[in-house]
């Protein structure tokens, strides 16, 4: 049972893995706040947040990653997961798992770099960087670098081109810096955005982009039908593994799993 769970977890999309980890950490902290009398959000942020001091790399190295997992409110947590789902999903469909992860992590460190520089030279009230907003901004501007006219469908309610989505986020951060609203976090967002754009300007060096100018682009219906069929095939194979083990798969089924894990 544990082995099957690990197998299924490893075959989730990258954005789904990140959403799952963030949800688990947030849920754990909520339980901690209920059952631990000594709990305080300030205490958690002090331990897990990135302070902007480079000495923390040696004294608190875990904060390079742990700061991403801490959210100061439900709204902070929910909005970051919302961006992950809409934008992260779109980028992974284009770039694949490996390029998605490299974009996410490099954008995180771009946010850390700009936050730390701004903390040293500017006077703002934020003392710790928390949340994965810088990484999310990297995903947004990666899509801008690939195709700034690409249209994003927000559940059929709003359809916007990426350039307008990016402009909206940047304006919010510039206003935040000007007004002193989470200025440190806004500088981190800009750092993540710049890193994501640099990685993907002119399409980056990616060779596995799913579309080609020499092929007729798929319609939304064709793409969705193909995705549903692949998901059904994958679920059937996973069920077979659960019942009879991996070795019960045919050569074609194993090859299909390999292709999906590399997509």
Describe it.
This protein is mainly alpha-helical. The protein folds into two domains: 2-203, Rhomboid-like fold (Up-down Bundle), CATH 1.20.1540; 220-262. The chain is built from twelve helices and two strands, in the order H-H-H-H-H-H-H-H-E-E-H-H-H-H. Strands 1-2 form a two-stranded antiparallel sheet. Helix 6 runs parallel beside helix 8 (133-146), helix 7 (97-121) crosses helix 8 (133-146) and helix 8 packs parallel to helix 10 (183-200). The chain is globular, with a radius of gyration of 20 Å. The two termini are 25 Å apart. 31% of the residues are buried.
State the main characteristics:
single chain; 263 residues; mainly alpha; Rhomboid-like fold; 2 domains; 2 strands; 70% helix
The description of the largest β-sheet is: 2 strands, antiparallel
Question: In CATH terms, what is the architecture of the largest domain?
Answer: Up-down Bundle
Strand order of the largest sheet: 1-2
Q: What is the C-alpha radius of gyration, as a whole number of Å?
A: 20 Å
Stated plainly, the CATH topology of the largest domain is called Rhomboid-like fold
> Overall pLDDT, averaged?
83
Low-confidence segments: 204-216
Structure class? mainly alpha
Order of helices and strands: HHHHHHHHEEHHHH
Name of the level-1 CATH class of the largest domain: Mainly Alpha
Distance between the termini: 25 Å
Portion in helices: 55-70%
Oligomer: single chain
Shape: globular
Total number of helices: 12
Task: Classify the beta-strand content into a percent band.
Answer: under 5%
Superfamily (CATH H level) name of the largest domain: Rhomboid-like
Q: How many separate domains make up the residues?
A: 2
**What's the total count of β strands?**
2
């Amino acid at each position: 049972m544990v082995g099957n769970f690990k197998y299924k977890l490893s075959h989730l999309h990258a954005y789904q893995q990140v959403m799952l980890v963030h949800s688990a950490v947030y849920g754990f902290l909520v339980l901690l706040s209920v059952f631990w009398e000594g709990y305080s959000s300030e205490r958690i942020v002090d331990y897990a947040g990135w302070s902007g001091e480079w000495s923390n790399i040696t004294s608190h190295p875990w904060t390079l990653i742990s700061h991403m997992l801490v959210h100061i409110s439900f709204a902070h947590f929910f909005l970051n997961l919302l961006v992950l789902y809409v934008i992260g999903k779109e980028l992974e469909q284009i770039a694949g798992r490996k390029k998605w992860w490299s974009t996410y992590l490099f954008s995180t460190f771009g946010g850390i770099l700009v936050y730390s520089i701004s903390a040293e030279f500017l006077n703002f009230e934020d003392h710790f960087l928390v949340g994965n907003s810088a990484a999310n901004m990297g995903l947004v501007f990666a899509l801008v670098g690939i195709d700034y006219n690409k249209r994003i469908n927000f559940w059929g309610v709003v359809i916007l081109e990426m350039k307008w989505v990016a402009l909206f986020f940047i304006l919010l951060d510039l206003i935040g810096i000007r007004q002193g609203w989470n200025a440190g976090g806004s500088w981190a967002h800009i750092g993540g955005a710049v890193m994501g754009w640099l990685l993907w300007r002119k399409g980056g060096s990616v060779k596995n982009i799913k579309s080609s100018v020499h092929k007729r682009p798929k319609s939304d219906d064709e793409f969705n039908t193909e995705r549903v069929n692949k998901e059904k095939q994958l679920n059937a194979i996973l069920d077979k593994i659960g019942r009879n083990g991996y070795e019960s798969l045919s050569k074609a089924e194993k090859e299909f799993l390999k292709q999906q894990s590399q997509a």
